[in-house]
Amino acid sequence: MVKLGLNIDHVATLRNARGGVEPKLEDAARVALGMGVESIVTHLRHDRRHIKDADVERLCKLFPGRIHLECAATPEMERVAIKYKPASVCLVPEFEGERTTRGGLNLNAANTSRIKKIIANLHKQNIAVSLFINPVAADVRTAKNTGADIVELCTAQYSEAKNKKEQAALLEDLAVCSILARELGLKVHAGHGLGYSNAAAVAGLDGMECLNIGFAVIAKSVFIGLAGAVLEMLELIRK
Ligand code: PXP
Q: Is-above-0.85 flag for pTM?
């Protein structure tokens, strides 16, 4: 059964709007985990625009083994991960001024060698590592060579497809990479931009283990509550 990782960054966005402590991230995490979500996903950005260091610390303490931390492949973020020990880390590209993550990692030789070292250091702390990559076979192979445990296939392009034909072609790229990753012994996740109309097809791909979804679920929760929004997504991806 395909699992759901719920990204709760936008609960923090709402909290930060008034500078207080409500809505609490731990309340969102409790509701989501209670509904059957596998992991709680948070992205600690350099600009700390939503999740703060203290949030990562608190969430890791309250929900050991359930926090999946997204962060850039930098020495600063490596130190944060080693300090707070999430269950897993997903290394993502990060660019100043971007509204959200725009695509997978650039796995050129220099980046790959940096990422390899970070992975080795995180493994020493028993932290599993995922690489957020574009659905390209060469990147799946490179990810395997870095020692990563998981690849998260970027679904941003798929989610923004202009028509059914383009969407089908992009889904095929995800399908090929999912199978390849599984054959190479990697766990397969996917995410970014997925919502109630397009997540089920990705969940149905051979090898797919977990979808990491945030915005669509948190947005729906404004109208029907978080438990209902999570349940609706779980039902869709488990079918
Ligand atoms: N996966 C990764 C690697 C991400 O960076 C994000 C956004 O933080 C997500 C999944 C979730 O994306 P969305 O909020 O569009 O569902």
A: yes
Pocket of ligand 1 (CB under 6 A): 7, 9, 43, 70, 90, 92, 100-101, 132, 152, 191-194, 212-216
What is the C-alpha to C-alpha distance for residues 88 and 65, in angstroms, rounded to an integer?
8
Atom 9, ligand 1: residue with shortest CA distance: 192
Nearest-angstrom CA–CA distance, 99 and 93: 13
Query: Do the bridges between strand 88-92 and strand 150-154 make them parallel or antiparallel, or are there none, so unpaired?
Result: unpaired
Distances (CA, A) of 114 to 64, 71, 168, 179, 231: 27, 14, 34, 27, 39
- 88 within 8 A of 129, measured Cβ to Cβ: yes
**pLDDT digits 0-9 by tens, 104-119:** 999 999 999 999 999 9
Cα–Cα distance list, 92 to 1, 146, 157, 162, 221 (Å): 26, 14, 16, 25, 26
Instruction: Let me know if 192 is a catalytic residue.
Output: yes
Query: What is the number of the ligand 1 atom nearest to the C-alpha of 215?
Result: 14
- 38 classed as catalytic: no
Which of 7, 92, 194, 209 has most ligand 1 atoms within 8 Å of CB, for mutation?
A: 7
Per-residue confidence (pLDDT) for residue 179, from 0 to 100? 98
